[in-house]
Amino acid sequence: MIKTENTFAPLAKKMTVLSLPILAGQAFGLLYNLVDTWFIARIDTADPWLVGATGLVFPLYFIVMAASFGITGGVTSLVARAIGAGRESELDSTAESGMFLALTASALFLALLYSFARPLLSLFGGTGQILEYGNAYLVWLLPVVPFMFVNAVFVGILQGEGRTKHMMVSMMLGTVANIILDPVLIFAAGMGIGGAGLATVIGNLVSTVYLVSVFVAQRSSVRVHWQISRVSLPVVGEILRVGIPQSVLNFLASVSFIFYNRMMVSMNPLILTAFTLYSRLEQIALIPIWSLSSALASIAGQAAGANDIQRMRASSRTASVIGFTVTGALYLGYALASRPLFSAFQSDPRVLDLAATIVPWMALASVISIPIFMFMTVMSTAGFANQSLLLTAIRIYGLSVPACAVGVYLVGKNLQSAVICLFIASFLALLVALAWRTLFFRALESGRLVVKLSSGAKPGMAESLAPVPEGGLTE
To answer: Quick one: DSSP state of residue 469?
Structure first.
């Protein structure tokens, strides 16, 4: 069972230990994104539509990521709560049940996306040359889907246990393969922007091979029996109960790009390229948030299983403080160095001017949103992903999309007014989330909300469960 450590210092140390391997792995992922964008831009640095095409494809890619995040989130929540509650039966068929979902989802997504790729890219604002580039990129990128989904299952298990080192290695191996293959496929093989998509596929395959080896070598307390008979309907149901709201949550974020892209393109199509540059390089500041969120999922999920509400509350607060400190400093550096950074990827002065307008306001919006994301992580990993979904819907469609429309069509009617309105929407969303957080923890403490397990057992009801070996979170 996990120890009760509700003061800031022990939790901060625990989060740092768990998040650093993920941070290292995601730093490699950031390196890939930067190198990938750089190689694509090098096909023709004077052509602004090449980099913009990756931004056009991103909403579709993000839809796939949303589904994979849902699987990861559902598996992470189940594993973490079961470990916290000490219930071995919750874990025995997790891998097979998760892989059943992953393979089923892969078949559905591949059938739909290959059938409707071009119409969807047009829906997201693609026309002319940017549509042609986007379609060429997407066709070669789509085979990544099954590898992403299978990886999501294994990563969910490892994250629920707190075994972040294996997650780090899988990310690093996939990224290194991707970076090596980019110039080979883009230039040497003459595939152009399609080569970047294929390199991503092979990189994810390398990660899959490593993760399979981890479970074959039994480096996890969750066993993979490789038997379809091990698929458990209650476990599938629990993954879906938590995972579907998380997938929908991320899907809503992806669909919002339809609105953002169309509004921005209506002012100037080059804004799409500028936003793509900003979002790619923004990951420099975002990776600490992603790594903290992964560490928080392990700690808060196991605390939920043990019915330790104070630890859940303290972990959310601690992650927010660390995130503010680290990410705030990174965003400041990003804002100061943004112009020369953008110049390395794009020579069109119009795009560079637009990107410079985006940076300060969107950076501020991201920083003040950190407590929102940490609180949503706690709710989701504790099994209340439906509440995270509702908060996301309010944040995006109740505040951000309408605010962007106000800036584009009513006030100012330019890019600067749009990003200022988005910042104001983020501040209002923070106020809503802080009030929600207070009510959520009060409901848990009073018993009006109860953490559930897939078997229906109450949190804290332990059965015989072998302790997770060194490298895991339980003690």
So the answer is: P
